[in-house]
Amino acid sequence: MDTKKIAVLVGSLRKDSFTRKVAHSMIELAPPGLDMEIVEIRDLPLYNQDDETEHPSAAFTEFRERIGQADGVLFCTPEYNRSVPGALKNAIDVGSRPYGKAAFAGKPCAVVSVSPGALGGFGANHHLRQMLPFLDMPCMPAPEAYVGMVAGKYDGDRLVDDSSRAFFQTFIDTFAAWVERHAK
Ligand code: FNR
């Protein structure tokens, strides 16, 4: 079983982001078969189809190459107005083009939504899932990860909630098997 490279996309740009904390927990708990790394999205310019020339911006090219080199993608998203934040949507749009050469195409993925609220970002999670068939990304159906009431699960950067840790472990182990099964 080869090690599989996973690009982790974090939908929050906030310094003390809970979503980033959850992404780090997933990285820490990942089994040895997964090599997970956050691919930053904060410096991507807003996608403009006019810029889709033979020489797109270096930021676009670098992002597409990083996604292209990955065997799978883990999307970690907060919920903004019951959907995904614009920064994450922008990154998905950038990685989805040029048409027919999407960096995301065929990569197995999973979705984790995070919120200080009780609903765990359900709306964002499912808006994100709606994009995945169009991107030709096989998305792990279960377990679903709606990480609600997240503020109480961390002391600073430290995950202090044992039941969440157990759930994250199951989630990431199942994702490793999903990637193994579906990676090209
Ligand atoms: C929010 N927040 C929020 N929370 C939620 O559960 N459902 C929602 O629809 C929204 N909508 C929303 C819109 C905007 C513009 C902001 C700035 C915030 C609150 C949000 O969950 C909270 O700020 C989180 O802490 C954001 O995630 P990070 O940055 O901690 O990862």
Question: What would you note in describing this structure?
Answer:
This protein is an alpha/beta fold and 184 residues long. It has a single domain (4-182), classed as 3-Layer(aba) Sandwich (Rossmann fold), CATH 3.40.50. The protein has helices at residues 18-29, 58-69, 86-95, 122-131, 162-182, and strands at residues 4-10, 34-38, 72-78, 109-114, 145-147, 154-155, 158-159. The strands form two sheets. It has a five-stranded parallel beta sheet, sandwiched between helices. Strands 6-7 form a two-stranded antiparallel sheet. β3, α3 and β4 (109-114) form a beta-alpha-beta unit. The chain is globular. The chain starts with a strand and ends with a helix. The model has no long low-confidence stretch (mean pLDDT 97). Bound molecules: ligand FNR.
Describe the protein's topology.
Blueprint (H helix, E strand, L loop, with lengths): L3 E7 L7 H12 L4 E5 L19 H12 L2 E7 L7 H10 L13 E6 L7 H10 L13 E3 L6 E2 L2 E2 L2 H21 L2
Parallel strand pairs: 1-2, 1-3, 3-4, 4-5
Antiparallel strand pairs: 6-7
The chain binds ligand FNR.
The site of ligand FNR has 16 residues, from helix 1.
Features:
single chain, binds ligand FNR, 184 residues, 35% helix, alpha/beta, 5 helices, 17% strand, Rossmann fold
